[in-house]
Amino acid sequence: MANFASSKNLGNGYPTPGPQRPDIQDIMNHAYFLTDGQWKEAKENNSYDYVIIGSGFCGYAFAKRILEKDKEAKILMVERGGFLLPTHFQNLGASYKKLVGPISETFPWSLSQSTMLEKAPYRVTQHGMLPYFGGRSFLWSAWCPQPEKVQVEKWSPVLFNSLTQKNGETSYFDDAIKLLHVHKSNVLPFSKNLKKLGLENNLDQLRLPEYGALQDIIHDLFAKKKDDFNSQSVTRAKLMKVEYASLACGDGENKGIDFNKFSTPTAILNLVDSTAFPTKNVDSDTEKRRKEGNNMYPNRLHILTECVVEEILNENNQAYGLLTSRGTIALNNAELILATGAMPPATLIQKSFNHESAGKHFTAHTISAITARVKKDKLSELTENGNLQMGAIYLPFFAENGQQFHIQLSIIHDPNPNKNQELAMRYMPDVVSTASPEQLKDSENYVILVCAILGELDIHNEEASFNANKDSDSTTGSLLRCNPSLKDKKTWDDMGKTTYNILDYLFDDPEYWYSDLNYYQECHVSGTDFLPERYGIQNSWVKKEERTRYPHVPAMVHEGSTLPIENNNVDSDNKKIEAVVNLDYQLINQGKPVSNLFITGASLWAQSGAWNPTLTMTAMALQLADKRIAAKEKQQPTSENTESTAILELIDQSKF
Known about the structure:
There is one protein chain. This protein has 656 residues and is an alpha+beta fold. The protein has 3 domains: 1-31, no CATH class; 42-85 and 145-181 and 264-361 and 561-656, FAD/NAD(P)-binding domain (3-Layer(bba) Sandwich), CATH 3.50.50.60; 213-262 and 363-557. The protein is 30% helix and 19% strand. It has 19 helices and 23 strands. The strands form 5 sheets. Strands 5, 6, 13, 14, 15, 16, 19, 20 and 21 form a 9-stranded antiparallel β-sheet that branches. The protein has a 6-stranded mixed β-sheet with strand order 8-2-1-12-23-22, covered by helices on one side. The chain has a 3-stranded mixed β-sheet with strand order 3-18-17. Helix 3 (57-69) packs parallel to helix 18 and helix 6 crosses helix 18. The longest helix is centred in the C-terminal third of the chain and has 22 residues, at 486-507. The protein is globular. The protein starts with 23 loop residues before the first helix and ends with a helix. 47% of the residues are buried.
């Protein structure tokens, strides 16, 4: 039986049956990505202006900006993985939650023994990478707070000001907010539309949740009591502000979809079609020029999946090729954009350039998790209307030691958890950190407060690094070491204590969820496998006196700082963090910039701060695109390989 898809001569069962075991990746290759045949021709004959490694937020933002502003640009986007999901898993239904976690992750590094042997409750592991088209964008929380100046004091003021200042009508942060479809949780698109139609009181009948009265009550309570709390904070941590959460959940605002978390797969596929060369009313010379070196004409964005970049070929501080699992890519005049997160680009640069400063630093957010519930009667302004009520509030703090942390507060009141299970999963502000079915059970008369507390690790910690090791595989040849310093441990402890402190202060006598993870941490701290007085209360609500002292979660998220950009960060000895990337986003190698290699993403961080990184790194990717467009407009790019290319053409023509 022949193995072919539907085509001009072969299809519809003629002359023989086609494939009987169709593969989703093969289908996507024929529909959107480069097939084996197309890729063979592309790598041998195509020419590109940019080669982007990565298909997540930064890769998408850079590609979109370039293609929309430079109408002649051609881009090759290289992704190491294949196709998994078309959109954010939360948009698809509750069953897809099973994809969250290690089952879908890879770990292209080795974790050091000293990190694994760190004593509880301070042992950490790092969440893995998502090696698929779209990267982490279809499994993220979608929280997008914008940092303020006081939160980025260790960053370059030149860089931060350039992101926040208006460039015409908008700033780069404004542009990133638009690109990611970010909205404040008190003005979500569907909520505004319902108010316009006078339907906000009919949400239960419409099978929609309410981001309204309950959220406002909790927000106003925090805001009203902020200064009083700060004046008597037991840990001396200070609440900086109270802010409705910024959520990237408006991706369906122009599509008739009420709550749709943003992800890049569909956005990138749409970009392929929307930015293609026009084919009507084009003169023959222009069409001929555009077709040269473009086997996918009229498309200007070509996507290659299941291709692992193993090495950047370079000489004299210029990248000239890529060794990949699918053959060698000659860059010629193309600029290379690394948009693969914080860790893979550091490994690639270490191995390709023997770069000693890459991976010298490592930061991330440690996590604590606290879930409380309060009787709804204590919130006197709350009226029962039968709605599933939700809210999301962002609470950034400065710890006494100067480190930052923040609480992602998700608020849920569910009067009918059995009925609303699917609905709740669909509309949760943070489905990775939310009330579980066990917690919602018997909580119909309560408001549940889910606190995901994220705290920054100190970039000056010499026990945290991502250095090259002797692994012969160039894509996994790094050793992650992260042993929290005394400063980090103090911050981590204060994260939990401060959260307990403010919940007790505002809500008098809340109950707290005691989880099996809390029990696990307590056992390890005590050096035993069994605590009889604690064993029986696992996964139940307890009073303040019985809550855990160790809400620490043994994991890190929002990794960064492996390739720090020029910054304003100095340690206690006034020693500055060495920049690996300059303010033009170029890699610095041996004291000089690599002419055509640019970095974007959280690897650039000068500090993790108290905010989720996606909005900021998207703004930076947009700025990088504008910088490259401006650079090309200033001077017509010339190829340093012109002579060698001409020689190859002569050799081909001579037909020896």
